[in-house]
UniProtKB/TrEMBL annotation:
This is Antitoxin Xre/MbcA/ParS-like toxin-binding domain-containing protein. It comes from Sphingopyxis macrogoltabida (Sphingomonas macrogoltabidus). Residues 1-22 are annotated as: Disordered.
Length: 100
């Protein structure tokens, strides 16, 4: 038999936090910006040879393109068109079209 002293006590209370908490200081992307960001990412993944080359291109500051390509493409239709042309120029699949 065991005594009450041998029984474990209640588990300590855990803080109610969520790893998915929203950061109140970050403004979400406008729907059009989010659409452009998703489209340019998909195009880069498809034409630049996969995830790693695409992420390297999209996230590397490029003065000739006016900043990080993902940010340039997200902010306007003109920026998107410029980055789209650059992705086609760098494509590992010569003659590839947007539709893949």
């Amino acid at each position: 038999m065991t005594s009450d002293q041998d029984k474990p006590g209640p588990a300590p209370a855990r803080a109610r936090t969520s790893p998915f908490r929203r950061n109140r200081w970050i403004i979400p992307l406008a729907p059009e910006g989010a659409r452009r960001q998703g489209a340019i990412s998909a195009l880069a993944f498809r034409l630049l040879g996969g995830r790693d080359p695409a992420l390297d291109f999209l996230n590397t500051e490029d003065a000739a393109l006016g900043g990080r390509p993902i940010a340039v493409a997200t902010e306007s239709e003109a920026g998107y068109a410029n980055i789209e042309r650059e992705i086609h120029a760098r494509s590992v699949f010569p003659g590839a079209t947007h539709g893949g």
